[in-house]
Amino acid sequence: MCLICDEIKNNEFKLYEDEEIVVFLAKWGVKGLTIVTTKQHYTILEQVPEEVFGKCLFMANKVAGLVFQVLNCQGTNVLINNGDGANQEFAHFMIQVVPRFEGDNLALDWERKPADNEQLKDVAIKLQEQIKESEKKEELKQKQEEPRETKPETKSENTKDDRDNKNKSEKTNEEQENKEKSKKGKIPRWLIRIP
Ligand SMILES: [Zn+2]
Predict the structure, then answer these.
(1) Average pLDDT in the chain
(2) Separation between Cα atoms, residue 8 and residue 166, nearest integer Å
(3) Ligand 1 centroid, distance to 105 Cα (angstroms)
(4) How far is the CA of 9 from the centre of ligand 1 (A)?
(5) Beta bridge partners of 14
(6) In angstroms, what is the span from residue 40 Cα to ligand 1's centroid?
(7) Which of 31, 35, 81, 187 has its CA 20 to 30 A from that of 132?
(8) 92 CA to centre of ligand 1 in angstroms
(9) What Rg do the C-alpha atoms of the chain give, in angstroms?
(10) Ligand 1 centroid distance, CA of 30 (Å)
(11) Is-contact 46 61, C-beta < 8 A?
């Protein structure tokens, strides 16, 4: 059985629990290490539904504030180790709130080297391509979920003014749709630009 699922059932130091998430004090690591996790067994972050993840983040922030006050620590690390390559120890998504004390020698630091511009550009291009791909998929999914009403075509003579107006209103519609999408939080309005 998954150790985190087991903790969710049996941990005696639960701070919070509802139908979706649980917050408990970890029995490993440093004093006051607090785990915010999902009741459902999700292996990695990508599988966690957005609303549930939002709730986890909200609680992690609350816990960080509490721990900071109660333990008189100097700071907290709020960590998500996502995947084997990222030191994810347990195959159950969790946010770890780690209280930090001066001289605790927790090895969470790394040496920062200046980034190479060509490498950054390469990553940015790949990200942009991936964003386009995932947006296409997301839009397709949305269309399937909520079939749009088809507007009756209005017949008009295509004078230049008409065309301009049409372009303008299409643009406004697009902006409106973008706003709606970002309100729902389903498709973010990405800002990435390749220099
Ligand atoms: Zn589990």
Answers:
(1) 84
(2) 57
(3) 29
(4) 10
(5) 24
(6) 7
(7) 81
(8) 5
(9) 24
(10) 21
(11) no
Q: How far is the CA of 73 from the centre of ligand 1 (A)?
A: 30
What is the amino acid identity at position 94? M
How far is 173 from 163, CA to CA, in rounded Å?
15
pLDDT, average across residues 124-153: 79
The one-character DSSP state at 42 is -
Q: Is the pLDDT of residue 55 over 90?
A: yes
Ligand 1 (ion): residues with CB under 5 Å are 2, 4-5, 41, 92
Residue 75: strand pairing partners: 100
In our burial notation (b when 16+ CB lie closer than 10 A, e otherwise), range 151-169 reads: eeeeeeeeeeeeeeeeeee
The tens digit of pLDDT for each residue in 102-117 reads: 988 888 778 888 889 9
Residues contacting 57, CB < 8 A, separation 6+ = 95
Domains of the chain (ranges; CATH) run 3-100 (3.30.428.10)
Amino acid 151 reads K
- Find the 91 Cα to ligand 1 centroid distance in Å: 7
State the distance from the centre of ligand 1 to the C-alpha of 4, rounded, in angstroms.
5
Which helix (H) or strand (E) covers residue 87, if one does?
none
Which three-class secondary structure state does DSSP give residue 94? Answer: strand
145-180 tens-digit pLDDT: 876 555 555 555 555 555 555 555 666 676 666 566
Stated pTM of the model:
0.72
- Matching residue, tokens 């996502």: 82
